[in-house]
């Protein structure tokens, strides 16, 4: 009887280890283009720790992003940007539309936790390297159109909000702020 129990325990332990290994191998991983503040020279994504002196947001604290957070973040942003771009008329789409298949963006993610314990990420996107040390310093650009945009993502609620696409200084075109209320079909734009 004891031998049967021991064999059953060994079998179950082996099955658990096998299941964990299978699940880990099948899990979607974030691309190797990721750089934390210390890393990778070919990176297209930098995670910058939240600092009140850089962001001036009240009631936020630093946090980290797990691989699963990065995968979710990427998915939410791409879906939200498609929805936003599809909501634009054809003329606005040229200047303010965001199409990840047409442009290669570098990304800065600043993860934080708000006073309600929700994980928020401020995501900043740009087409080129306007700052030599973009992996450590937040890039702020005031024109450049859809080559530069940023938004906030609430990972806890799985919502994107406050998308801001830069305007163009050459033709005095202001930027475009897009808000979408996830509980309704209303959209609002601010120029």
Low-confidence stretches: 11-40, 180-191
Main sheet: strands, sense, barrel: 9 strands, mixed
User: Rg from C-alpha positions?
Assistant: 21 Å
Total DSSP E strands: 9
Mean of residue pLDDT values = 75
Estimated helix fraction? 25-40%
N-to-C span? 77 Å
Question: Can you tell me the overall shape?
Answer: globular
What's the total helix number? 4
Series of H and E elements: HEEHEHHEEEEEE
Give the strand content: 15-25%
Number of domain units: 2
Key structural traits:
30% helix, 2 domains, single chain, disordered C terminus, 191 residues, globular, nine-stranded mixed beta sheet
Characterize the structure shown.
The protein is 30% helix and 25% strand. Strands 1, 2, 3, 4, 5, 6, 7, 8 and 9 form a nine-stranded mixed beta sheet that branches. The longest helix has 25 residues, at 2-26. The chain has 191 residues and is α+β, with helices and mostly antiparallel strands. It is built from four helices and nine strands; from the N terminus they run αββαβααββββββ. A hairpin with a 4-residue loop joins β6 and β7 (159-165). The protein is globular and about 70 Å long. It has two domains: 1-29; 31-190, no CATH class. The termini are far apart.
Write a concise synopsis of the structure shown.
This protein is α+β, with helices and mostly antiparallel strands and 191 residues long. The chain has 4 helices and 9 strands; from the N terminus they run αββαβααββββββ.
